[in-house]
């Protein structure tokens, strides 16, 4: 996974045999942080599972491009005031949302696949 905002990348195994690796989840929490404020929170492991599932199901061979994940309430409110369309109680604030792109998969295909999973859009 590559962060579009910070240029950082992470390539790791975050779970084995259905068990998450706590140290790696902490690394992912930092990687998926609110880059504007350099604040992180615990990200929902199910979100990370979903990203991996979509990547595999859609046959992407390119690294996931992370556009945005956790947003602090401060950042979210600032973006809302600027008319960005962010929800007042955005799932990003709760660590349950990420804006991603698979460079080799059309955005519409990714969106539709996420909707079928009943997560995001």
Question: What keyword list fits this structure?
Answer:
35% helix, globular, two-stranded antiparallel sheet, 3-stranded mixed beta sheet, alpha+beta, 121 residues
Detailed description of the structure:
With 121 residues, the protein is an alpha+beta fold. A hairpin with a 2-residue loop joins strand 2 (15-16) and strand 3 (19-20). The mean pLDDT is 93. It has helices at 22-31, 45-57, 73-81, 107-116; strands at 2-3, 15-16, 19-20, 65-68, 99-101.
Broad shape: globular
First-last Cα distance: 19 Å
Radius of gyration, taken over Cα atoms and rounded to an integer in Å = 14 Å
**Secondary structure tally: strands:** 5
- Biggest pleated sheet: 3 strands, mixed
Please report the number of helical segments.
4
Helix and strand composition category: alpha+beta
- Sequence stretches where pLDDT stays below 50 over 5 or more residues: none
The fraction of residues in strands falls at 5-15%
Helix-strand pattern: EEEHHEHEH
Q: Biggest sheet, strands in spatial order?
A: 1-4-5
Helix-residue proportion: 25-40%
Mean pLDDT equals: 93
């Amino acid at each position: 996974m590559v962060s579009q905002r910070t240029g950082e990348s992470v390539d790791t195994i975050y779970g084995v045999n259905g068990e998450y690796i706590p140290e790696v989840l902490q690394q992912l929490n930092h990687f998926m942080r609110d880059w504007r404020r350099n604040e992180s929170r615990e990200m929902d492991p199910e979100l990370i599972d979903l990203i991996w599932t979509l990547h595999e199901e859609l046959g992407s061979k390119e690294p996931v491009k992370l556009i945005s994940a956790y947003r602090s309430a401060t950042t979210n409110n600032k973006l809302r005031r600027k008319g960005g369309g962010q929800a007042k109680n955005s799932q990003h604030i709760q660590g349950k949302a990420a804006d991603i792109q698979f460079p080799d998969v059309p955005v519409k295909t990714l969106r539709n696949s996420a909707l079928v999973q009943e997560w995001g859009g």
